[in-house]
Amino acid sequence: MSKTLERWGSKRAFILAVTGAAVGLGNIWRFPYVAGENGGAAFLLIYVAFVILLGIPVMMAEILIGRAGRRGPMQALGALAVEAGASRHWRWLGLFGAFTVFCILSFYSVVSGWSIEFLVASINGNFRGASAADIGAGFDAFLANPGLLVFNHTLFLLMTMVVVAAGVAKGLERLNNLLMPLLYGLLLLLAAYAATTSGFGTALSWLFLPSWEALTPSVVLHAMGHAFFTLAVGACALMAYGAYMPDEQSLPRAAMAVAVLDISVALLAGIAIFSVVFSQGMDPADGPGLMFVTLPIAFSELPWGSLWLSVFFLLLLLATWTSAINLAEPMVATLQGFGWRRSVSTAIVTFSVWSIGLLSALSFSTIVDFRPLLGRNVFELVSSIPPDIFLPLGGLLIAIFAAWVLPRGTAAAALGVGERGYLCWRHVVRWVSIPLTLMVLLSGLL
């Protein structure tokens, strides 16, 4: 495959695209409940430290491979490996990344479909005046309704793939330029509302004043894993975007901007969520149900609760939509590398993801007793193994390829920070990021 001629229209478009890939369920759904289960501020500080030491260097490694290769992930890895005198089998890492994203998107579409249902329910005022038992029972009934789950999964996936089919400039870039600012606007609006609630001060203290006795090895490992998951590294998605990166753009500055924007979403979402939770005297450690059970209960007791809950689920839907669009692109780019048209590649990805997503959607009802591995159903498998094992394994191999296999001149030119800057980055990746990534992988395996 020849080098791609497509480019992002501006430096801002690239940053918004990578941020769109990173910002999603990890920030608005996963971060609050993981922070809630792991002590709040202590977890937050360790998480930010690992974003700097682990996430950003590996993100730069992934993007620079795409920038150096200017092809789809599989083709870029193969061509660069041959150039370096290494095995051409490195190209299979690109296919592994596409498979990882495929698994993640199949459950991502299902959970994002939940946000559609809860957005409609919030607008209709279905949670107003409802008891905690009623809201919990309603969520259980929703999960047990295969027709609703499949419909929402299908609707969300179609929303996603129509944009991907339009291409980089007309599809991804145009929607990112529109939706990412809207997403941040809604977040700031929710944070401003949170400042008026009685739990705002408690939420700030809980998020920013660490209680060091809460810091355990388990908290450190969770922070490490979340830092990896939230930046969308390890699946070659950012490699695909690096291929479209403008020649004159600074890669380190872009990576830093993405990390800051990504962390800010998690913090603003945490402030908004925990302010409401503490206002109602509820437990921040309610786990994955925090989003779809605890928050509707909390908002139902507040003035204008239905309006603010609707804003929140609109925010969640936008975040997951932009993330899904940006995660789907590498799979389409990989198939295009085999010579298929974008429309055909998009159709194949859509049908494949939809089919596996069906198994995830039906895991709560029709095939609830189907547990093919480790006593887990399909949803539990695809929502745990790919993010906990496949992503760190992919990130580990990407970091090794960029820091140990790529020729020094090729990597330095793609990084674009001069010889001294390149050596500093390479040292951090080799001796800090790679060992930390290995720890994340081992913790996922164990």
Structural account:
The radius of gyration is 21 Å and the shape is globular. It has helices spanning 11-22, 25-37, 41-69, 73-83, 92-123, 132-143, 146-165, 168-194, 200-208, 217-230, 237-242, 251-279, 294-300, 305-336, 342-361, 378-382, 385-405, 408-415, 418-445. 75% of the residues lie in helices and 0% in strands. The chain is mainly alpha-helical. It has a single domain, classed as Amino acid/polyamine transporter I. It has 19 helices and no strands. It comes from Vreelandella subterranea. GO terms for molecular function: symporter activity. It is a multi-pass membrane protein.
Kindly summarize this structure in a few lines:
With 446 residues, this protein is mostly helical. It contains 19 helices and no strands. The model has no long low-confidence stretch (mean pLDDT 87).
